[in-house]
Amino acid sequence: MADTKDYGKPAHARDAREVSHWDSETDVVIVGLGGAGCCAALEARAAGAEVIALERAWKGGGTSAQASGQLYLGGGTALQKACGFEDDPEEMFKYLVASCGPGADEEKIRVFCERSAEHYDWMIGQGVPFKETFLPVEIGTDPYGDDGLSYTGSELAWPFREIAKPAPRGHTAQQEGENAGQLMMDLLLANVERAGVTVLTDALCEPLIMDADGAVVGVVATVGGEEKCIRARRGVILTAGGYIHNKAMLDRYAPVTRRARFRLGCDGDDGRGIRMGMGAGGDAIRMEAACIVVPFSRNRQFVKGVLVNRAGQRFCSEDLYQSLLGEIGMWREDGRVWLVLDDALYEQPQLPTEIAAVGETFEELEREAGVFPPGSLTHTLETYNANAARGEDPLFHKESRWLQPLSKPPFVVLDLTLEKYPFWSAFTLGGLHTLPTGEAIDPDGDVIPGLYAAGRNASGLPAHGYNSGLSLADATFSGRLAGTAAAKRRG
Amino acid sequence: MADTKDYGKPAHARDAREVSHWDSETDVVIVGLGGAGCCAALEARAAGAEVIALERAWKGGGTSAQASGQLYLGGGTALQKACGFEDDPEEMFKYLVASCGPGADEEKIRVFCERSAEHYDWMIGQGVPFKETFLPVEIGTDPYGDDGLSYTGSELAWPFREIAKPAPRGHTAQQEGENAGQLMMDLLLANVERAGVTVLTDALCEPLIMDADGAVVGVVATVGGEEKCIRARRGVILTAGGYIHNKAMLDRYAPVTRRARFRLGCDGDDGRGIRMGMGAGGDAIRMEAACIVVPFSRNRQFVKGVLVNRAGQRFCSEDLYQSLLGEIGMWREDGRVWLVLDDALYEQPQLPTEIAAVGETFEELEREAGVFPPGSLTHTLETYNANAARGEDPLFHKESRWLQPLSKPPFVVLDLTLEKYPFWSAFTLGGLHTLPTGEAIDPDGDVIPGLYAAGRNASGLPAHGYNSGLSLADATFSGRLAGTAAAKRRG
Questions:
Q1: Which residue of A has its CA nearest to B289?
Q2: Is residue A461 a contact partner of residue A109, using CB atoms and an 8 Å limit?
Q3: CA distances from A45 to A64, A241, A434 (A)
Q4: Which structural domain range is residue B107 located in?
Q5: Which residues of A touch B101 (CB under 8 A)?
Q6: What is the CATH number of the domain that holds B471?
Q7: Binary contact (B9, A444; C-beta < 8 A)
Q8: Whole-number pLDDT of residue A73
Q9: What is the mean pLDDT of chain A?
């Protein structure tokens, strides 16, 4: 087992010739039983393979079970239709390419969009419930209800609404509150057991085992304090999550992401699966990519507020989804962002952060805040108000439904800077380079026989730019494809 | 030899056991005879090693010979002292860490700052002339004169002037015009010949040769149409330049950099050295990093102009060095940047780009331009003028010497957008991971015996953030260290 100081490094595969005894043998071994792992296991079983799934925690679920149970799906799903929305794979493709780039994998996005409606049906088939109701854009998700469909991206925001026909694509499993991911994972885990997958928990894997021809033929797992060598006749699927809890990897690959203090992920998100894959010749790509969120708009009233940077300027539209805002705020504005509200918008419960200033006039507000260049905030707000009164936002084209002059004093500046607001949240999106099938490839682009990766062990749909629900959708979908591909391989 | 379609991939090392005949043998082989290669060759010879240098072009020089001959040096060089400037390694270190991050290699920066004055003396010892005159900040470099010392970074700009005590650190070889790099390289190449280095030109190398223990023991070179295997008893030093001319690598690693249309580099900058190193187990890091320049301020009058983004806002201080501006303009502003001047600043020769608008008033200018939100440009200029009249820039703290209201009509907007202004220039900064000694390391951090990299084949001093002259200084300095280290290795 690697020392802590080696946590940034590849976990080199063991030579199969050094394995004196195989403790178990199966067709497909799955490393990590979160969203990707469960779906991989189910599809591998469905394709007739014997499956062993290894989970380092005492039970499966992983980060998917901590999530809000949102799946970013579209292209005309049954839920979209039931709620009266039109969508098609081409519009979804155009939107995702625009919002997940530059550097997004268009081939993966294409396959995902074409099969997205089918993936929804598959989830229904797994017993995951979705309520056939649409959560209106204006209401938002605070508190979480149990509506099935909502906007969880920037589809309605400029310029995206001009690039692709908008449709709501957030499909949330039905449960009151914001932990529908737990519900979804409980259902999937039960199905995994029922399908006859052998599940071993408290099983920490590392490293992979390779034969002399460079094929992955198994994995070393520590189970109950003992090292076991488990042979995989057809393949090993790495589905062990991202690396947001691995500081050595963040330092090495994603120094900007490391600045976000709220790290989204279960304890196991230490990048071990990625490092195991690298140690078997896999290529880790887009490792700098991350979902970065500045949570401020779950109470949708706040979208009617005004976000400003350290120059007292607006820097983007407030109706961009908060997972895109976070990236802009971190990369472009250095984490220095404030939200201005008036008394009509300010309501309890307030955002859990400091009030930087209160004032009866914009001038007083600006003076109180003491961080903006003289006159800058006042001008920004006066200009914003004058345009909002006409229903216009010539700077960033915020949708007219959110445009309302800040006219009721007192005015308030909420401090959302990285220093003061601890809820800047992040998880990593980089991982092993895979084909859309889930087959892991080396830096030459050659398939590593017997090695698959899915979920956050792989670089998936998003590169720079994220939409809520995309990681869970990508994880479950890519897990399915990898499970099928591994089961069908003749090793 | 790799096919064009494989240009994005590692060039795998050949197994020494497959080499039936060594055509030549020496202590140290150098691949690429630009700035890094020449300095490596000279220091390897000085340490007593026999050296063969292989250059793919008909003569050495590489991209260094196309450069302006600026070396970013400091910490109290003889030239700084002669011109009356104080500097010390600690202030230089603080500045470089701030301007080359996040993700910059602090250990390399430390070594560089401590030995920077000595590196200047070494260059003098090589016969490279530097005129002991300082080019005043206000004059700039259009046309190029032959002054030795100038500011080539953002040392005087905010916030850097508060982070570290500013000093001019651009040391330019003495020659009228902007091609002092050619002079420097001609001198170094002559010294290389004189030192008894065996130089083979028209020699295209690929791949490296490794023995069964994983040590690099030579290189395959095609010379005069024939493949030669050249044995290196002590080591091979890769100094073959960056990859700005390799579109497959740009797509893979640096999709943002690829947008810059003016690619700075000689024909040989196809990343071959980096790919050879990767093919011997080397780790390529910070591959997304690049120097991106929007050249607009060689005529320093233009620093008194106002740069605006598509929202008609200023987005940074105009006195940031143009190689930092380029990064901000590309990464933060999507390449959409305009420069506003008044008739007092507008002079011939003008920047070679389109005039987006001319107007007798700011309102007319904004209307003519037709790209800014109504009122935005007018407000930006009015605010700028009011503050400039008081010698202040509360937004971005531009130095007072550059602050002058735009008050003499007609006013003009110059179009510097990526679409219209073809001079957005770039070269790559990512490369093989090396220790400060130049020893190449693998993803585990283990040294690959016999393999060294320097110059743009390595990831050197700058990560995100560049200062003019840093690449040439880094190349020549890192080349020297690698040459010494390779010569002293006992293979």
A1: A288
A2: yes
A3: 21, 22, 22
A4: 70-178
A5: 255
A6: 3.50.50.60
A7: yes
A8: 98
A9: 93
Look at chain B and report how many structural domains it folds into. Answer: 3
Chain A 225-254, CB below 8 Å of chain B: which residues?
Answer: 252
Contact B395 A278 (CB under 8 A): no
Instruction: Answer yes or no: is B94 within a domain.
Output: yes
Same domain, A306 and A172: no
Chain B contact probe: residue of A9, A307, A337 with most B CBs at under 10 A: A9
- Indicate the residue among A112, A145, A178 that finishes a domain: A178
Q: Is residue B463 within 8 Å of residue B289, measured between CB atoms?
A: yes
Residue A410's CB is within 10 A of a number of other CB atoms, namely 15
What is the structure's pLDDT at B138? 83
> B341 and B237: one domain?
no
Q: Which of B324, B256, B243, B330 is nearest to B284 (CA)?
A: B243
List the CATH number of the domain containing B344: 3.90.700.10
Q: Which residues lie closer than 8 Å to B250 by C-beta, 6 or more apart?
A: B243, B244, B257, B258, B428
Q: What is the CA radius of gyration of chain A?
A: 24
CA angle B86/B87/B93 to nearest 5° reads 165
d(CA A431, CA A272): 11
pLDDT of residue B176: 86
Judged by CB atoms closer than 8 Å, whether chains meet at B383 and A396 is answered as no
Q: Please tell me whether residues B388 and B304 are part of one structural domain.
A: yes
Q: Is the model's pLDDT at B244 over the cut of 70?
A: yes
Q: What integer pLDDT is reported at residue A364 of this predicted model? A: 97
Last residue of a domain, one of B387, B415, B443: B415
Q: Which of residues 123-152 of A touch B (CB under 8 A)?
A: none
One DSSP character per residue, A229-291 reads: EEEEEEEEEE-----TT-HHHHHHH-TTGGG-SEE-S-TT-SSHHHHHHHTTT--EESTT-EE
Q: Mean pLDDT, to the nearest integer, of A249-277?
A: 92
The structure tokens 């902007």 sit at: B178
Q: How far apart are CA B157 and CA B159, in angstroms?
A: 6
d(CA B276, CA B415): 41
Q: Give the containing element (helix H, strand E) for A116.
A: helix A106-125
CA-based nearest residue in chain B for residue A433: B252
**CA-based nearest residue to B394, from A16, A163, A371:** A371
For the entire predicted model, the pTM comes to: 0.84
Q: Would the pLDDT of B292 be above 60?
A: yes
What is residue B298's predicted lDDT score, i.e. its pLDDT? Answer: 79
| ipTM of model over 0.90 | no
Distance between A65 CA and the closest CA of chain B, angstroms: 32
| Among the listed residues B412, B395, B409, B406, the one whose alpha carbon sits nearest the alpha carbon of residue B319 | B395
User: What confidence tens digit (pLDDT) does each residue in A199-209 have?
Assistant: 999 999 999 99
Q: What's the pLDDT score for residue B5?
A: 53
Give the whole-angstrom CA distance, residue A489 versus residue A219: 17
| Interchain proximity A373–B394, CB inside 8 Å | yes
The arithmetic mean of pLDDT across residues B31-59, rounded, is 97
With an 8 Å Cβ cutoff, are A383 and B383 in contact?
A: no
pLDDT of residue A280: 96
Query: Cis omega before residue A349 (within 30°)?
Result: yes
CB atoms B383 and A394 under 8 Å: no
Is B219 in the same domain as B279?
Answer: yes
Decide if pLDDT at A349 tops 80.
no
**Edge-to-edge strand order for the sheet containing B70-72?**
B70-72, B170-172, B149-150
Residue A420 within a domain: no
Gap between the Cα atoms of B467 and B471, Å rounded? 8
Of B255, B312, B395, the CB nearest to A311: B395
Interchain pair B10, A443: CB under 8 A = yes
- Residue B164 is assigned to a structural domain of this protein: yes
Phi, psi at B141, each rounded to 5°: -120, 35
Q: SS3 of A47, please?
A: coil
In a domain, B420, yes or no: no
